[in-house]
Amino acid sequence: MKKFPENFWWGAATSGPQSEGRFNKKHANVFDYHFEIEPEKFYDHVGPDVASNFYNSYQADLKMMRSIGMNSLRTSIQWSRLIDDLETNTVNEEAVAFYNNVIDAIIAEKMTPVINLHHFDLPVELYQKYGGWESEKVVELYVGFAQKCFELFGDRVKFWTTHNEPMVVVEGQYLFQFHYPNIVDSKKAVQVAYNLNLASAKAIQAFRKLALKDAQIGIVLNLTPTYAASDDPKDQEAARIAELWNNKMFLEPAVYGHFPAELEELLTKDKVLWETNDVEKEILKNNTVDFLGVNYYHPNRVKAPEIAPDSVGDWMPDRYYDAYDLPGRRVNLDRGWEIYPQALYDIALDLKENYRNIPWYVSENGMGVSNEERFKNSSGMIEDNYRIDFVREHLSWLHKGIMAGSNCFGYHMWTPIDCWSWLNAYKNRYGFISNDIHTQLKTIKKSGYWFKEVVSQNGLE
Ligand code: BGP
User: Choosing from 165, 243, 280, 372, which is the catalytic residue?
Assistant: First the structure.
């Protein structure tokens, strides 16, 4: 039996915009707005209006989550729902009541609430008026929103995170056009990366000033460990830069309070380095995280680029490396992502050895599969054996990392109940619990029952 540490977090993660539905129409976030103007971009034209209907069914949903053994849950508070006046941070009372009720209900179901403050869901007006995360004004407004959340809910919420996967904002919104406003501008992308780091540090500063009892704050990063195609120095160099850009640009400021010097050198050479100043450097330095959430789905395998970087026109980070498809790799064909559970062990050791053995937990990991109806048995339960195998293998490697001394305190799968996922909408299902988007009927999958057993044993065979 592979036993996990005492008080290990067994749970799952979702977010406000992906689960709640559009309960407060006062402000749209960037996804609400994008769906209004380009519904055809969303899989099957399904938008975020209903999501998994958590706003209306949170009590029953939380009961179901508890019934599969979950002892912790991450979700997020939506800025565009909580705040009525975005300039003065005046709250919407209906939203305050909702989030109060949700937090109380999570605790009543004996789960630890983990609350995130930004899951790609910037209020769209702040993009239209100020240019969103390009602007320091938005950083200030975000810190005001964060402070409101700490004041309103910090008596009960003991674990906070400032952002989920900020790198997705940089790449999706400013480089590779997979999130609204679909800008391609590397100088802006780099400044947005800086501003998101600064926003996190400033929110942490505000959090620490409040000195909430027994409370901790972290950040959720999508760490995609980089593996070079070979020992050839050119492939190794490609991997070094991919690692700097994809992981260390957020990881080092979060843990050490400064950017990697090698990354700053590269961005300076390429004339895209962010604007900064000594006051902000001091804020970054003094406001590092208490813990990390690590979202891990797939590795990043790279080789030297076919076209030499210097001959390429506009700056793009990925001109320094090409994707490499490892022969014989296992792939989740529905999502197109390689399955490589050993990476969780590699992450565990990296954090232990190179990041002061910081406390961390797996804040997302999971397998998105389309059309799971085909796996329904005669009693209507989805027999998702592939997901059980996926989670078991990842947990096994994670366990090995913990045995080697890594300071990991939990595992959250993405996601408790099938939820809405940005442009992919309801294409890929990830939950322990299925959700019929027409009837809102929720049914525990085989993996949910399996997970319950894992939790009750605090480990697996
Ligand atoms: C992560 C996000 C989640 C969720 C997940 C699955 O990157 O933090 O919000 O969307 O990916 O994504 P998809 O449904 O696109 O496979």
Answer: 165
Residues in a beta bridge with 85: 90
Q: What is the DSSP string of 369-413?
A: EE-GGGGB-TTS-B--HHHHHHHHHHHHHHHHHHHTT--EEEEEE
> Ligand 1 centre from 284 Cα, in Å?
28
Is 262 catalytic? The answer is: no
Ligand 1 pocket, mutate which of 178, 421, 427 (most atoms under 8 A from CB):
421
Report the percent of the chain where pLDDT is more than 70: 99
Helix (H) or strand (E) segment spanning residue 95: helix 93-108
Confirm whether 364 is a catalytic residue. Answer: yes
For residue 308, give the nearest of 328, 298, 296, 322 by alpha carbon: 322
Are 187 and 172 spatial neighbours (Cβ–Cβ below 8 Å)? no
User: Which residues sit with their C-beta closer than 6 Å to ligand 1?
Assistant: 15, 18, 164-165, 222, 295, 335, 364, 368, 414, 421-422, 424, 428
Torsion of CA 340, 341, 343, 345, to 10 degrees: -160
Cα 169 to middle of ligand 1, angstroms: 12
Q: Which of 409, 404, 394, 432 is nearest to 4 (CA)?
A: 409
Handedness of CA 205, 210, 216, 221 (dihedral sign): negative
Distance CA 60, CA 41 (A): 32
Distant-in-sequence, close-in-space partners of 166: CB < 8 Å, separation ≥ 6 = 118, 193, 196, 197, 200, 219, 221, 250
Q: What is the pLDDT of residues 373-415, one digit of tens each?
A: 999 999 999 999 999 999 999 999 999 999 999 999 999 999 9
Q: What is the pLDDT of residues 299-332, one digit of tens each?
A: 999 999 998 777 566 788 889 999 999 999 999 9
| Widest pairwise Cα distance in the chain | 65
Domains, the chain, with CATH or none: 2-460 (3.20.20.80)
Query: What mean pLDDT is predicted for residues 324-352?
Result: 97
The pLDDT tens digits of the residues spanning 53-73 come to 999 999 999 999 999 999 999
Average pLDDT over residues 62-86: 98
Q: Three-state SS for 141?
A: helix
The H-or-E segment that residue 185 falls in is none
Distance 255 CA to ligand 1 centre (A): 24
Residue 315's pLDDT is: 80
Does the pLDDT of residue 26 top 80, yes or no?
yes
pLDDT at 152 over 90: yes
- Determine the pLDDT at residue 307: 85
Give pairs for 372-375: CB < 8 Å, separation 24+. 372/429, 372/434, 372/445
Q: What is the value of pTM for the model shown? A: 0.98
